[in-house]
Amino acid sequence: MRFHFTVNKDAPLVLTEEQLKKIFKQADVNNDNCLSWDEVRKVFDNLGSCIPGVRAHLGIWHADANGDGKVDLNTELDDLVNYARGLGFTITNKIAKQVTA
């Protein structure tokens, strides 16, 4: 039995772990090495979430191991990225500029 797969050139590409890490790191506008709720919300808004505030709350809930209400970029970023990857965000023109900059 053979399987034949075709690739649709117009199919959206799901953001990779590295691309999401880069996007979240760029969101740390005050350079405190942590992401606040507002910084995480802005990322989810830019990713195209229709409920970015809820996504930010849940993302921080998944990632915030020490309970300070923020995501530490050194120790907690992977959990936030895993949460975001599970949502299946795809590359849009707006996002493409962020991940290639």
Can you describe what's shown?
- The protein contains 5 helices and 2 strands, in the order αβααβαα.
- The mean pLDDT is 86.
- 50% of the residues lie in helices and 4% in strands.
- A two-stranded antiparallel sheet has the order 1-2.
- By secondary structure, the chain is mainly alpha-helical.
- The protein has one domain: EF-hand (Recoverin, domain 1), CATH 1.10.238.10.
Q: Please, how many domains?
A: 1
Per CATH, the superfamily is EF-hand
Topology pattern, helix = H, strand = E: HEHHEHH
* Major beta sheet summary: 2 strands, antiparallel
Shape call: globular
Mean pLDDT: 86
- The side-by-side strand order for the widest beta sheet comes to 1-2
Low-pLDDT parts are none
Give the beta-strand count: 2
Estimated structural class: mainly alpha
Oligomer: single chain
Put simply, the count of helices is 5
Radius of gyration: 15 Å
Name of the CATH first level: Mainly Alpha
> Helix fraction?
40-55%
CATH topology: Recoverin, domain 1
Q: What is the rounded distance between the termini? A: 44 Å
CATH architecture: Orthogonal Bundle
Work out the strand percent: under 5%
Keywords: Calcium
Domain EF-hand: 15-50
Pfam families: EF-hand_7 (PF13499)
Protein name: EF-hand domain-containing protein
Set out the fold topology.
Layout: H1 17-26, E1 34-35, H2 37-46, H3 52-63, E2 71-72, H4 77-86, H5 93-100
Antiparallel strand pairs: 1-2
Helix pairs in contact: 1-4, 2-3, 3-4
What's the quick description here?
This is EF-hand domain-containing protein. Helix content is 50%, strand content 4%.
